[in-house]
Write a structure and sequence with these properties.
Layout lengths: L2 E3 L12 H13 L10 E4 L3 E2 L4 E5 L8 E6 L10 E2 L6 E5 L5 E8 L1
Length: 109
C-alpha cells in the first residue's frame, strides 16, 4: 500500500499536531493489527530547491516507496503548495514552488 504525506512542516511538528497524527495513521495503515513495522529501506535526500516543475529525486531504494515525506526547510515564506507525482522504483517525483528548499524522505516496508 503506497501512502504519502503531502506536506509536513517539520519545524512545527510537536506531540498532538495534525502532521504527527498523519504519520501515525500512515504507519498504522501500513501495519494493521499493531504488528511491528519492518522497514526495508530509508532514503533522505540532500537539500532540494523547487523550480515550479516536477523534479525527479533518485532514491536508490530499488522499490517504489511505501511512504514519502516532503519536508520544507528554512521556514514557509515561499508561497505555493508542494505536490507529489507518481513515485517509482527509481525516483520520488516532487513539484515545489520556485526557490522553496526541502528534503525528501522515502521509506519502503
Amino acid at each position: 500500500m503506497a501512502e504519502t504525506l503531502k506536506r509536513l512542516d517539520w519545524q512545527n511538528l510537536h506531540h498532538g499536531s495534525a502532521a504527527l497524527r498523519r504519520i501515525i495513521d500512515t504507519f498504522d495503515a501500513l501495519s494493521p493489527s499493531n504488528k511491528p513495522l519492518s522497514i526495508d529501506g530509508i532514503f533522505k535526500s540532500d537539500v532540494q530547491t523547487g523550480d515550479a516543475s516536477e523534479q525527479d529525486i533518485a532514491h536508490s531504494l530499488g522499490a517504489t516507496p511505501s511512504m514519502v515525506l516532503v519536508i520544507p526547510i528554512g521556514g514557509l515564506n515561499v508561497a505555493g503548495d508542494i505536490t507529489e507525482g507518481t513515485h517509482d522504483a527509481t525516483n520520488c517525483k516532487v513539484t515545489a514552488p520556485n526557490t522553496m528548499k526541502y528534503y525528501v524522505v522515502a521509506i519502503t516496508v
